[in-house]
Design a protein that fits this description.
This protein has helices at 18-25, 38-48, 67-76, 86-89, 103-113, 132-155, and strands at residues 31-32, 52-57, 60-66, 117-122, 125-131. With 163 residues, it is α+β, with helices and mostly antiparallel strands. It has a single domain, classed as CBS-domain. The strands form 2 sheets. Strands 1-2-3 form a 3-stranded mixed sheet. The chain has a two-stranded antiparallel ribbon with strand order 4-5. The two termini are 40 Å apart.
Length: 163
């Protein structure tokens, strides 16, 4: 049985970086403080239709709250989120990436750590959140573009007697 490795970018260009995805995605970012009640954070997530909140304290990233932590809290509290704070339930040590991180590295990290949402930071400045969906969409679009270019190239291939 053989396996294949697929690149996230067209083979003719440099590897795609996180900064390129952030440019397309935009800069809407939702944050919460660790002392906010978990149920208030869940209200924000539902209202904004998002799967994660970046937890910020004194201007620094201190954690991530995703639906995974919310579901764990619901389980621990017998079907409700309880009265705990975000700090009690957040991931204290989320993996982070930079704008210069290559998309293939992001894919590897997300798969290795089972992370669906990864904060993007430059030094200590939070720039955005990369979701598994964002990465999948970027890879799909890059592969679609490459596929279209290859089909155009094949369509323009000279006939055997045209040389």
């Amino acid at each position: 049985m053989t396996s294949a490795t697929f690149e996230a970018t067209p083979t003719s260009g440099p590897p795609m970086k996180v900064s390129e995805i952030l440019q397309v995605k935009g800069d809407i970012l939702y944050t919460v403080t660790p002392d906010k009640l978990l149920r208030e954070a869940v209200d924000i997530m539902v209202e904004k239709d998002i799967g994660s909140l970046v937890v910020m304290e004194f201007g620094e990233l201190v954690g991530m709250l995703t639906f995974r932590e919310v579901m764990r809290a619901v389980h621990e509290n017998g079907g409700g989120v309880g009265e705990g704070t975000v700090r009690k339930h957040m991931d204290d040590y989320p993996i982070t990436i930079t704008p210069e991180t290559e998309v293939n590295e992001v894919r590897r990290l997300m798969l290795e750590r089972h992370a669906r949402y990864v904060p993007v930071v430059n030094a200590k400045t939070l720039l955005g959140v990369m979701s598994f969906y964002d990465v999948a969409k970027a890879v799909f679009e890059a592969q679609s573009f490459e596929n279209k270019m290859l089909k155009a190239y094949i369509r323009d291939w000279p006939a055997a007697g045209d040389e």
